[in-house]
Amino acid sequence: MKHIKSLSTVLIVLAFNTFHAQVAIGKDIIEGKNTILDFNNSPENTKGLILPATKGLPAGNTANGTFIFDTSDDKVKVYENNSWKALSDTGNSTTIKANDSNENGAGVIIGEKEGSADGVLVLESPDKAMILPKISSPHLSVKDPYPGMICYDTASKTFAVFDGTVWNFWK
Questions:
Q1: Which among 57, 61, 59, 89 has a CA at the least distance from the CA of 76?
Q2: Cα-based torsion angle of the residue sequence 108, 109, 110, 114 in order, rounded to the nearest 10 degrees
Q3: Cα separation of 171 and 161, whole Å?
Q4: Using CA atoms, how far apart are residues 133 and 48, in angstroms rounded to an integer?
Q5: What is the distance, to the nearest Å, from the Cα of residue 78 to the centroid of all Cα atoms in its chain?
Q6: Which segment of 4-8, 118-122, 157-161, 164-168 scores lowest on mean pLDDT?
Q7: SS3 of 118-138
Q8: Distance of CA 132 to CAs 10, 83, 100, Å?
Q9: What is the mean predicted confidence (pLDDT) over 134-156?
């Protein structure tokens, strides 16, 4: 049943992407014409975006703006200007559940027919951006955050990442 739900979700996203190239998750209306992916931003929202948990840094051609949760040192990282930068202190990855699926597809691309990066979800657009899930005070309102969770904190107006131990905030 889980595979049917996942397949259905991917097919819906792909069908929507083919016709409109903008996707809203958990809401009906996308904020602005320059948005490629938008999430539920109601005041009650406590669900963020979970980054992929990798054991070490991804091999191969990495695109600037790639985000991961690196379980080898328990840090949230971003690839920027051809190097990896830590966005968190050392956290804790013990609660991460291993993905035992045999999925090895190329992933989903939103915004273009083909992607220039290798990833599970690739957002490709020369003029559209992703709006992160918006959560007010995630360190207080998210009761059981998962390592690698990211969101925009509407209370402090910062980018927030959870490293498995604490929330880290970036202006």
A1: 89
A2: -150
A3: 12
A4: 5
A5: 12
A6: 4-8
A7: CCCEEECCCCCEECCCEECCH
A8: 20, 23, 27
A9: 94
Q: How many domains does the chain have?
A: 1
**Per-residue DSSP letter, 61:** -
Quote the domain boundaries for residue 8: 2-170
Place 4 in a pLDDT band, splitting at 50, 70 and 90: low
24 — phi, psi (to 5°)? -115, 135
Minimum mean pLDDT among 7-11, 19-23, 85-89, 154-158: which range? 7-11
Read off the pLDDT of residues 74-118 as tens digits, 9 standing for 90 and up.
Answer: 999 999 998 999 999 999 999 988 767 666 666 777 777 777 666
Backbone angles phi, psi at 44, to 5 degrees: -85, -5
Which residues have CB under 8 Å from 21's CB, separation 6+?
A: 36, 110, 111, 112, 125, 128
Instruction: Annotate 55-79 with b (16+ C-beta within 10 A) or e (fewer).
Output: eeebeeebeeebbbbbbeebbbbbb
CA distance 12 to 70: 30
Place of tokens 């931003």: 41
Entry field: residues in the chain: 171
